[in-house]
Automatic annotation (TrEMBL):
This is DUF58 domain-containing protein. Residues 35-245 form the DUF58 domain. Pfam families: DUF58 (PF01882). It comes from Pedobacter cryophilus. It comes from the Bacteria. InterPro entries: DUF58, vWFA_dom_sf.
Length: 285
């Protein structure tokens, strides 16, 4: 994250160890051999294995595993709470690098990629396409995000229905801060589209530990409300309540069949993505 150029940072993270974000297990006329099966009326005769016929005097179809290209839409929370920082980096900075790396990976694999930014006044949308120029435009849009205001109101969620009709992978990057369940209303909307949904919750370590050295007054970045607390006295109860809250959200998302993973801004991005891809591949196999 010391690399300020998003395209270079994404390439650095991805190259050398990331692969297979959406390797399919369906059968088709690919290059990687999978198995033989008996010929059935209506099968493509070009798939017949004549060598097997010569040896067995029976017709067999040679099947292969193929890679499927999909459409990936990245949804980024640009409400004011994403401006929260711990040290040199804000949550929105981590979100930028996370999305840039996954977009770079998707583009390498021939996937169409799109971007939706949820901000106070509505939704910025960038349709999914597959080409390097489109990837460069996506990087530019990520760089220009300026979090402000509250999360997008549900009235704007209808814009999400304008995507492609085929099944998509939707990757939502957010801190999951909401006032009236608006984020879970969004996730319910995404579920009605029958797409695969992944939620990355971005948190700062000082949020998790209530470790703000020298501060006793705290301001809600979205509402402007301020409170006074003694960190040392409040820390134990705060951490217990936060842990309970995070577990409740995790269970809610799992009940909706949504993949959930929390990332902290001090966590190395390459390791976080490697763990995510490995776990995702295990779930799909």
């Amino acid at each position: 994250m010391a690399i300020k150029d998003l395209s270079l940072a994404a390439k650095t993270v991805v190259d050398g160890f990331m692969s297979g974000i959406n390797k399919s297990t369906i059968k088709g006329a690919g290059l990687e051999f999978s198995q033989y099966r008996s010929y059935q009326p209506g099968d493509d005769l070009r798939s017949l294995d004549w060598k097997m016929f010569a040896r067995s005097d029976r017709y067999y179809i040679r099947e292969s595993e193929v890679e499927t290209n999909i459409s990936i839409r990245f949804l980024v929370d640009a409400s004011a709470s994403m401006n929260h920082s711990d040290g040199d980096f804000k949550k929105i900075d981590y979100a930028r690098y996370l999305v840039a790396s996954l977009a770079y990976l998707g583009n390498l694999q021939g996937d169409a990629i799109g971007l939706y930014v949820f901000k106070d006044g509505g939704i910025f949308s960038m349709a999914a396409k597959q080409d390097y120029q489109h990837l460069s435009r996506l990087f530019h849009q990520l760089e220009t995000i300026k979090p402000e205001g509250t999360f997008t109101k549900p009235i704007h969620y209808k814009e999400l229905y304008s995507g492609a009709q085929k099944r998509e992978l939707l990757i939502f990057v957010t801190d999951l801060y909401q006032q009236n369940e608006e984020i879970f209303q969004l996730l319910d909307t995404l579920n009605t589209l029958k797409h695969e949904v992944v939620v990355f919750q971005i948190m700062a370590k000082n949020e998790l530990d209530l470790d703000f050295k020298g501060y006793s007054s705290f301001e809600d970045l979205e509402t402007g409300q301020t409170i006074q607390i003694d960190q040392a006295v409040a820390r134990k109860n705060y951490k217990e309540q936060l842990e309970k809250h995070l577990e409740q959200m995790r269970i809610k998302l799992l009940d909706k069949h949504i993949y959930y993973r929390m990332l902290t801004t001090d966590q190395p991005l390459d390791q976080a993505l490697r763990d995510f891809l490995n776990q995702r591949n295990k779930l799909r196999n």
